[in-house]
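Title: Prediction job returns without error message
Component: structure pipeline
Severity: low
Priority: P3
Assignee: unassigned

Description:
Job completed but the reporter wants confirmation the result is attached to the right record. Sequence as submitted:
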Amino acid sequence: MRRAASLLFLLGLALLLAAIYRHLGPNAANVGQLIDARAPTEVGAANIVTSVVLAYRGLDTLVELSILFTAATAVGLVLGREPAATSDRDAGFILRAGADLFFPLLLVVGIYIVLHGHLTPGGGFQGGVILACAFFVPLLARPGRRLDQRWASLIEGLAGASFIVIGLLALVGGEAFLTPLLGKGGMGSLFSAGSLPLLYTAVGLKVGAELAGVLARLAAQQPVA
């Protein structure tokens, strides 16, 4: 039964890919070359990947953020409330000192990667993970400490709403959803690529808040004896 289901899935996937290729035509293989040629003048981002993620397929990125939100919500529902009892285990001097040392470093690196995503490899997703780790490491070093889920939820909600609002502002101006705004600026400068750095900031805050909340809930669960 499993083999038949697998064969049906592969057959359906092959038919889907064939239909997509037939619809796109022979230019499908040249999409990457067209983006490389047009993105610098149309978007103004030195990192072409950012142009693809936030401009040319920004709607897909919004769907990915929605999937991440759904996954984080499911984890919260499964784990339920954080246990009221706190652990008094001593994390040790090395871990506590390392957490105090790495917190500001992780914070600066995460912010840097988010803000420079349109210039160098990185961006909101990668920087958001580092920001989440910056707030999660102190929880490991001091087991009695808890992450304020209310603030995490507030930041996550505002970041997601900001991403959508920026996309809607392009519609108000008569452009497509998530079309870069505010001008392209100078290629390679920090203030370039229009509204793309703002979108990556929203993505970084949303990813960081959601992932930090998930890790905090996992760390708060008491091990089964």
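Comment from assignee: result matches the submitted record. The CA atoms of residues 112 and 127 lie 8 Å apart.
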